[in-house]
Amino acid sequence: MKNKLSILFASLVLSAGILGSMVYVNEANTALKETNHWQNLEGEKLSLAALYAQGKLDRVGKRRLAAAYRQDGELDKSAELLRKLWIEPASAEDFSKDAQELASLYSEMGAFDSAMESYRSILDFDKARLSGADAQIGRDLTNLAACHYLKACCQSEPLARRKELQQSLNLYGDARRTIAAVDTISLEKRKQMLEVIDGNMQLARLDL
């Protein structure tokens, strides 16, 4: 049986293919005369890689290079660069942004333990700098819970799968209590966040 992660990625690929077909039909043969996306991507990647080798890329440039590697399927290179960014001194916003991107990439690669390491670092970081209930901590808990769920979907051993699903539910419960206690967001925003968490919890319970 295919796991949900494979189905999700397959759906994304299918959507991209459909979109690409629509663009081709709309633009007809003129699209063949233009530099395509992959040529542009390759050019940008080579240019940024050359600057990186010379030590001339700032943090934004390094992110662009990591994104180019990721789009071109060179996930290991993208992860290596993002991990270097993650451990460099940075502002709170930059630390969180780079760790989130790294965790997302690790999840895409199926390296869920590494993804959870990144998500936990963000959670610990936010807990240390934010007081009381905060929407960002709720987001961190939700991301970590989702990662445990994805890992569970890839487990073939029932006990290991159940362990990950239970951990996911526990973290979703923590996220729900955190978001419910936040008083710095609108009622509508809180409602939306809780609905997402409740939907994810229901899915995890069904699989459990």
Structure report:
The chain has 208 residues and is mainly alpha-helical. The chain has a domain at 89-208: Serine Threonine Protein Phosphatase 5, Tetratricopeptide repeat (Alpha Horseshoe), CATH 1.25.40. It is built from 9 helices and no strands. It has helices at 4-27, 37-53, 59-71, 75-87, 92-109, 112-129, 135-153, 158-181, 187-207. Helix 2 (37-53) packs across helix 3, helix 6 (112-129) runs antiparallel to helix 7 and helix 7 (135-153) runs antiparallel to helix 8 (158-181). Mean pLDDT is 83; it is low at 4-34.
SSE diagram, text form:
Elements: H1 4-27, H2 37-53, H3 59-71, H4 75-87, H5 92-109, H6 112-129, H7 135-153, H8 158-181, H9 187-207
- 3D shape: globular
Describe the largest sheet.
none
SSE class: mainly alpha
What is the fold named in CATH at topology level of the domain at 89-208? Serine Threonine Protein Phosphatase 5, Tetratricopeptide repeat
Mean pLDDT: 83
Instruction: Give Rg in angstroms.
Output: 20 Å
End-to-end span in angstroms?
16 Å
Secondary-structure element order, as H and E?
HHHHHHHHH
CATH superfamily of the domain at 89-208: Tetratricopeptide repeat domain
Give me the number of helical elements: 9
Beta fraction of the residues?
Answer: under 5%
Name the CATH class of the domain at 89-208.
Answer: Mainly Alpha
In CATH, the architecture of the domain at 89-208 is: Alpha Horseshoe
Q: Descriptors for this entry?
A:
208 residues, mainly alpha, 9 helices, globular
Précis, in short:
By secondary structure, this protein is an all-alpha fold. The protein has helices at 4-27, 37-53, 59-71, 75-87, 92-109, 112-129, 135-153, 158-181, 187-207. It has a domain at 89-208: Tetratricopeptide repeat domain (Serine Threonine Protein Phosphatase 5, Tetratricopeptide repeat), CATH 1.25.40.10.
